[in-house]
Amino acid sequence: MICPKCQSHMKALNALPITALKCEGCAGLWFKDGQIAVDKAIEYAEFFDSQNNKNDGFFNQVREIDCPECSKPMSKMTDKSQFHIKYEMCTDCRGVFLDEGELLDLSEFTLAERLQQAIKTYQSNIK
Ligand SMILES: [Zn+2]
Ligand SMILES: [Zn+2]
User: Could you tell me which of 5, 1, 44, 45 has the C-alpha nearest to residue 27?
Assistant: First the structure.
């Protein structure tokens, strides 16, 4: 498959039960099973993703892209918890494209939330 952002070749990456395609050019990630796959892939963020150092966020600005599966224009999405994370989703096949570093970013928030939760539980226990 060809990357919708930089037209480089995309290569399959497997961490059971999830398969993603990673771009050899911009290091963006494609999840065919959309949001469900992204939620699961967060656990394997360090395996799939890399720090956003390859293109310094350049491809994050490239948002007018067509779905690599069905060639339809993709919708621009913003993460509900972290507004600075912007990604693209196909409303037709539900595929999701994340730029390099975004999956790691999502996973870090989950960790931070867990910590906050733990602190709250601790504080209510000592009262
Ligand atoms: Zn690319
Ligand atoms: Zn599609």
Answer: 5
